[in-house]
Amino acid sequence: MSNLKLKPAPTLQTDWVEAPVQYLADLSIKPVTYNPPNGTGVPRRIGNYRDFPVRIHDARPIVRDLSLDRQAFILTQHDTAVRDFYDKEEVRTAYEPEVEALIKRETGAAKVVVFDHTVRTADRAVERGLRAPVRSVHNDYTEKSGPQRVRDLLSPEEAEVRLKKRFAEYNVWRNIAHEPIEMAPLGFVDAESIAPRDLAVCDLIYADRTGEIYIGVQNADHRWYYFPKMTRDEAILIKCYDSMKDGRARFSLHSAFDDPTSPANPRPRQSIETRAFAFFD
Q: What is the pTM of this model?
């Protein structure tokens, strides 16, 4: 019997937009993604992908009811001292400590290891050596790749100790422009509406290694949310992996989408996602 106490599920709001998102329609073709080095091209994806229209609800009215252990995503105020998110050294020295403190604050973790940053832009991403927004329903880690990434990052001795206790992987996502997001906001599936069959393992093939993520298989029961017009002093925490099997959310699904309420000529989205492991005692 689990002792985990969760907040009541939030009440679904009536404010929503309808937009297509790209799911796997089925598993007739095993999904595989080939990722070229940054700045050399766009990923090549294999799989039976199709666009499905979904209702994506405004989560701002229920922001205080959201939980990392139920929905697997939350929005929080998060000021930053970073002036230029395109400056890798400034991100490393100024932003990583901010993210570590944020995750400790929101999760109670004993140790946080920040290990990756991805800057995305909807404006000439490839030629600038950056990545574009991801427009497919996915989750960054799987049952297998979560623990493997811990082993990749920590010494063998520390990894084995940490893997015996609870650990989780979080993405911290934010707008890095000085104006609110108008293009390609991020949508999230409430983790309580995700069934195990909705998570399909997809091989991620790079020049030097092969990893794996989950791709979302279409399910009409998914409940979608987003945070319209995100500003630079807000951050979203997304839980992509949790080792604890006690009823809390362990995985999530998310995707960029085209908001039909955006201006006719929206400003290109600029964002950063930072990945980190949280270890619990």
A: 0.93
